Amino acid sequence: MPSLPPRSSLRPSRTPADTSAHAIRVPAARAVVDCAVYVDGHRQPGRYTHSAALAEVRERGEGFVWLGLHAPDERQMSSIAEVFGLHALMVEDAVHAHQRPKLEIYDDVLFLVLRTVNYVEHESISTAREIVETGEIMIFVGRDFVVTVRHGDHSGLSGVRAEMDAHPARLALGPTTVLHAIADHVVDNYLAVTESVEHDVDLLEEDVFSPSSHVAIEQIYLLKREIVELRKSVAPLGAPLQRLGQDSNLGVPKEVRRYLRDVQDHHTIVADRVSEFDEVLSTLVEAALAKVAVQQNTDMRKISAWVAIAAVPTMVAGVYGMNFEHMPELQWSFGYPAVIIVIAVVCAGLFVTFRRNNWL
Questions:
Q1: Residue 338 is part of a domain; what is its CATH number?
Q2: Can you give the residue range of the structural domain that contains 74?
Q3: In what order do the strands lie in the sheet with 42-43?
Q4: Which of 152, 172, 219, 221 has its CA at 20 to 30 Å from residue 277's CA atom?
């Protein structure tokens, strides 16, 4: 079987016009959010470029580099990859994003993709247009470095870095402890988002099963669509976390694996909640459709009852509207009032009958 060319060679080549339009080189430093050298868990003073930081660590023979990037383009990421020795496929995934959560190993570099989620605040579930927004964090872990690439405005890691800087004993375990801290942060955020979504699901459930409420089924579909997006972000992360927590051949220290197993437990709780939301919303869709059907049946009974009542005067008027010479009580002076009274009595009798049968 002939071998396929690499993915990079499958892309259409740029025309000279395209090259001139995109020839502006933006330095890799523009994508750098923070870059630091850690030795024995302590952040070293001074500001470093990514290349200078790695050179410092390798010259010392100890410590590691933690480099944080935000939405780098292909040129910037290629520059970073050249310094840290990252595979070309890693570069492609980091630039284009939209990846499922996964764990891959390239030589001695771990590559973990996490999907981040953020709850979009809204006044009411009935007026919401978006409930959950997603982003991505990609983590490259080597022997003496950890590189994080994030996409999305809500996926900042400054709080994680500040917390880790305050606990040098944890950072002393090496770059994989940063991977754990980020995974723990992302999964904890999953828990917070599911709690907020659970509140929306409960409100929607109350509205659907309230007799006097009229819930637009489109809102149920909207929330279900957001739950599907949440499930796609959360569920695939289970296998990578399990492997990181159990596989001793990945180079993850035993103590860090223990922490990762705790993250896996929290992830399982989140995944179960999301599955429950999906089941509840499927039930709500069925209940809402049944409620609509019942309402339509009630409306049809009311319409049928009023049509039956209206049929009585229509029938009598139709009889007396015919041009016959010999009509019932035609010459009787009380004929017209008598007919009106008969019509009223019959219509009233029908109204009472339908009312007792809950048709009206």
A1: 1.20.58.340
A2: 7-292
A3: 42-43, 32-39, 64-70, 145-151, 132-141, 109-119, 102-106
A4: 152
Residue 37 β-bridge partners: 65
Q: 226 with 350, same domain?
A: no
Are 319 and 216 in the same domain? Answer: no
Same domain, 227 and 315: no
**Inter-residue contact 270 to 189 (CB < 8 Å):** no
What pLDDT, in 10s, does the model give residues 11-62? Answer: 333 333 333 334 456 677 788 999 999 999 999 999 999 999 999 999 999 9
Answer yes or no: are the C-beta atoms of 140 and 90 closer than 8 Å.
yes
Q: How far apart (Å, rounded) are the C-alpha atoms in residues 100 and 138?
A: 11
The one-character DSSP state at 199 is H
pLDDT value of position 324: 63
Contact 22, 14 (CB under 8 A): yes
How is residue 350 written in tokens?
């029908």
Contact 146, 66 (CB under 8 A): yes
Residue type, 5: P
Please write the tens of the pLDDT for every residue from 157-214. Answer: 989 999 999 999 999 999 999 999 999 999 999 999 999 999 999 988 888 888 777 7
Residues 72-109 pLDDT 10s: 999 999 999 999 999 999 989 999 888 899 999 998 99
pTM comes to 0.77
Structural domains counted in the chain = 2
CB 284 within 8 A of CB 220: yes
